[in-house]
TrEMBL record:
Keyword annotations from UniProtKB, A to Z: 2Fe-2S, Disulfide bond, Iron, Iron-sulfur, Metal-binding
Name the UniProt record assigns to this protein: Rieske (2Fe-2S) protein
Keyword match Iron: yes
A Pfam family the protein falls into: Rieske
Residue ranges occupied by any Rieske domain in the UniProt entry: 30-127
Length: 135
């Protein structure tokens, strides 16, 4: 019963934060990089929506760009993408997330990584929103 209550409280917190963000003006779009700056298989660390929120941009193939918060949803350790294994790993407690979806695969994390929505304008990549997800 305690685990269920904690999980419900965590879900409630995510819903509340989503509601709170929806009430506030969305953060402005922010240029992250140009397409030529991130090769296929490459990654890039950036900050969005402010300098206190580290994020990772990953280009697993020529047509795909993915971005997530770099903070593990377990205890906020910095996660590290592994494009070859299609995973994002958390070295603190051996957690891992799906590279394609950001959902937890192993270890203590129970929630997916917040996804950073991206938009490509010409040759430039912009972060446009943060999407918190509960499952």
């Amino acid at each position: 019963m305690l685990i269920s209550s904690a999980f419900s409280a965590g879900q409630f917190w995510i819903l509340f934060k989503n509601w709170q963000r929806n009430q506030a003006a969305p953060p402005p779009a922010q240029k992250i990089a140009s397409l030529t700056e991130i090769p296929v298989g490459g990654t890039l660390v950036f900050h969005y929506p402010n300098e206190h929120e580290p994020c990772i941009l990953v280009r697993p193939d020529a047509d795909t760009l993915l971005a997530y918060s770099q903070k593990c949803t377990h205890l906020s350790c910095a996660v590290i993408p592994n494009v070859a294994e299609n995973q994002i790993g958390c070295p603190c407690h051996n957690g891992s997330f799906s590279l394609a979806e950001g959902r937890p695969l192993a270890g203590p994390p129970q929630r997916p990584l917040p996804r950073i929505q991206l938009e490509v304008r010409g040759d430039e990549i912009f972060a446009t929103a943060v999407e918190l997800r509960s499952i």
